[in-house]
């Protein structure tokens, strides 16, 4: 077997991806820039902050060479705000993903701006490489795509850097996980009538998808297979109708 | 690299994501897509893979050089470099294995037309061809040769049913929109068509998602 894994990323693979999210660290030791395959790391000069990939930040943390600055959305107040949004303001949908930042003016369209994750060649960065998701300048009150994995890893390896009691953050995260898991489960009632052919899950997280993808996608495929003859009959009828319309028009002409 | 590239690099008004970062983003995107899509996707264009492999090779050589001097300062840098190297190698390996698994599963299908053959790299194509030849010879010597000649084919399409198994292109996938787009999806009871926003995560059939992914308007997640 070349690859004994089911289609779609597994939770282990998703956390591998999440380790590439950039986080902000406060170095405790000097460290020169290292030439990595993904580019040079910024030189570390205490007490200046620097953005590093999470895997490297965790390595530095383990060796007590740096402290990790938690992303602002992980603060208890921000988490409470998101829970309020998810339970009271809009109990159906997931909360919005972080808004794109637009720091550059668009030369082609005066007055408009360009998002930071897209360069002038039209190349688009997506999570885990999208800037400003888990760094110290991330927006408050929005969950990035890899929120659960990053939060869990920070709690596991850098709990003393979180700034708030780890127990409180853990409790809030658990509430959030439960609220959102219930939403994903409820979406199966939409799936039953997966007639429209499209289902939007805007704001869902990577780990939540990895956990439920097997179930959700097999329901969609199952519905399709059960309804294959219905669908074929419907398409035939629609085609005939179109054909009939066309011939009607011909007659009229 | 021609003069335009050099000019563009020094031009501060052009915002360009550095090449190393672009390569990592593209490799990651290709890996996620290959792990999620029901069929084999085209081999990445623009020598992405050759570039990444060359970079990995160079980095391994650097590690070999660095292990020579026992300076404690470069020691930590070495750990970081090696950790990153292993992460890259994992990505590349997993990507190639995901492709091999698909080629193994539907070898005859991917060898059946030029358009499908073009999706494979030279090495993958050589592998698929030789593997299929070995398998065919083995079948011939062990049992096919005792069948009547008209039953010896492995790619018959008699009675409207082809012997060649093909991947199910209507399998549901999950995509994320990279640009605001008009998305159409076929369903059992009715078809859907919606104007959707950048960042939307949508479940739909692969056959409907494919044009969006190929146009760079969406990516698989």
Secondary structure blueprint with pairings:
The complex is a heterodimer of chains A (253) and B (221).
Chain A: H1 11-18, E1 22-27, E2 35-36, E3 39-40, E4 50-53, H2 54-62, E5 66-69, H3 76-89, E6 104-105, E7 113-114, H4 147-157, H5 166-192, E8 199-200, H6 206-226, H7 228-252
Antiparallel strand pairs in A: 1-4, 1-5, 2-3, 6-7
Chain B: H1 3-10, H2 19-36, H3 48-68, H4 72-105, H5 107-111, H6 114-117, H7 122-142, E1 172-177, E2 181-185, E3 192-196, E4 201-205, H8 206-214, E5 218-220
Antiparallel strand pairs in B: 1-4, 1-5, 2-3
Helix pairs in contact in B: 2-3, 2-4, 3-4
Question: Element order, helices and strands of chain B?
Answer: HHHHHHHEEEEHE
Total DSSP helices of chain B: 8
Name of the CATH architecture of chain A: 3-Layer(aba) Sandwich
Query: SS-based structural class of chain A?
Result: mainly alpha
Q: Mean pLDDT of chain A, as a whole number?
A: 87
Helix content of chain B: 40-55%
Give the largest interface pair and sizes: A-B, 66 and 73 residues
CATH topology of chain A: Ribosomal Protein L9, domain 1
**What would you say the CATH architecture of the largest domain in chain B is?**
Up-down Bundle
The run of helices and strands of chain A is HEEEEHEHEEHHEHH
Report the sheet with the most strands of chain B, covering strand number, pairing sense and barrel closure: 3 strands, antiparallel
Q: What count of domains describes the coordinates of chain A?
A: 1
Strand content of chain A: 5-15%
Rg value of chain B: 23 Å
Q: Per DSSP, what share of the residues of chain B sits in E-state strands of 2 or more residues?
A: 5-15%
Major beta sheet of chain A, specifics?
Answer: 3 strands, antiparallel
Spatial strand arrangement across the major sheet of chain B: 4-1-5
The portion of residues assigned to helices of chain A is 40-55%
Mean pLDDT of chain B: 88
Organism (chain A): Chaetomium thermophilum (strain DSM 1495 / CBS 144.50 / IMI 039719)
Pfam family, one (chain A): PSF2_N
Keywords (chain A): Chromosome partition, DNA replication, Nucleus
Family (chain A): Belongs to the GINS2/PSF2 family.
